[in-house]
Every structure is written in C-alpha cells, then in structure tokens.
Amino acid sequence: MNANPIGHIPSPYGKPVAVFQDEQVPGGYVHDLDGCMDIAGIHDPLARDRCKTELKAKCAQGGIRFEIFLEHGGRMVPKVPLTKPSEPVYPTLPRDMSMDIPTENWATLAMDQPHWCKRAEAMLDILGSNLEQVKEWDAPPEVLAIGLSLLLTASLEHLVEDEIDCIEAAAFYALTTHPAWSKAGVEWLKPFRTSWFADWIAARPAYREFAGLCRNINTTLPGWIAGGA
Fold it and tell me: In a 10 Å sphere around its CB, with 0-12 CB exposed, 13-18 middle and 19+ buried, how is residue 195 labelled?
C-alpha cells in the first residue's frame, strides 16, 4: 500500500476515510487500519487499538471477519426509515420574490451535491451566513430559525430519500419541521451523541447555533442536539 492516499470517501460517521492503491491487486483499492475503524464505527481509542492488534494477527493468518469489528464496539451502519410527508412544506411556501429565489436556491443546493458530506458543508455555509445576518436585525432569532427550518425542510423534500444512513443526513433531518423526520434524525444520532456526533458538532459551530434555536421552536429536540447535556 502506498504511503499517500489517492483520495477520500465519506464514512457514515462524518469522518472522511483515506483510500490507497492496493499494490498487491492491480486496480484495487484499500483503507488503512484507522479507515477501517472509522467505517466500522469504532470510536473509543482503546477499543480501536485492541481491534487493530487483532486485525494484524488475523491478517497474518490469512483472513478477517467483520465480526471482529463488532467484538470491539463496531456496528452495522444504522438505517432509519423516512416516511413520505402527508403535508409537504415546499408547495406551501410563498412564491413572491422575497421567498421564491431562496426557496429554489435551497432546493438546488440540496440536489446538486453528490453525497451528504458535501451537502452538509454547503448547507452549513448558508446557515452560517444567515445566522450572522440576523444579528444585525431587530427581530427575535427564533423568527429566523422558523424560516430556515422551513427552507431546510422544503429542500430535503426534493431528495425523496426513504432512509437515513449517515450522520450528516440525520443531523439535518432532525432539524426539519416534519415531526416524523425530526424524530428519525434524533433516533439515528442518539447512540452516537457522546461519540461521533459530539465530534461532528464540536467542529461545526453554525450547526450548534441553529440547533439551539430550533430547540426553542421544537421542544422535543434533546439538549445534546445542540451540544448540551
């Protein structure tokens, strides 16, 4: 395996995984041990070290099983179903010039991204800029939170996804105005609230701020969704 990665792929838990050329297999690709730990969802450093040690021993013997990861705190990627909204937000949004352009921009933003880690970056950029702008307004920040949550919900309706299978999707579905979607997002995130998700939001202050505002308009959201207890 070459020392330098040829690229990165998304992982279910918000951490890009390095991809290396497999020198033993022409045209083949592999991950390093840390990448394997990330894909398998092993977060605890000591558990990762123990798993790496066992993997090295098993590889020397000629093979490994995915059960090894499960024995060290790994897991299969959770998949939480998403139900189709009975009352979509998108058709109800105003179509005057003050709302039409941002509504379509958000929908395009959601659909143009190749995967959720890129989509999350794009949405966090626009959320962050809007949150900064509202600080100059003489209006309660919750007013902005309602508007942004409606735009977020309308944009995600265009994806027509039937399940949540990664941390970024869960994080944003949790903040939509559809109760079933919000519940599904929280359900996916809950097992990782003190591990992968805690790491993810620690690096994303705009998400924490927006989630905190959303908690003021959706009291079912837990404190940890915004980085609290």
Answer: middle
How many C-beta atoms lie closer than 10 Å to residue 138's C-beta?
Answer: 4
DSSP 161-196: --EE-SHHHHHHHTTSS-HHHHHHHHHHHGGGTTTH
Tell me how many degrees the CA angle 141-138-215 measures, rounded to the nearest 5.
Answer: 10
pLDDT digits (tens, 9 = 90+) for 165-196: 999 999 999 999 999 999 999 999 999 999 99
- Half-sphere CA count of 104, side-chain side, radius 13 A: 6
Q: Long-range CB contacts (< 8 A, 24+ apart) of 45-52?
A: 47/72, 47/73, 48/72
Contact 172/146 with Cβ under 8 angstroms?
A: no
Q: Residue 28 has which token pair?
A: 């083949």
Distance CA 59, CA 8 (A): 23
Please say whether the beta carbons of 106 and 151 come within 8 A. Answer: yes
Residue-level length of the chain: 229
CB neighbours (10 Å) of residue 179?
Answer: 11
Segment 131-145, tens digit of pLDDT? 887 777 777 778 888
Tokens in use for 99? 């709302």
- 3 state SS of 30: strand
Do 82 and 162 contact (CB within 8 A), yes or no?
A: yes
Picking from 145, 144, 146, 186, the residue whose alpha carbon sits closest to that of residue 164 is: 186
pTM for the model stands at: 0.92
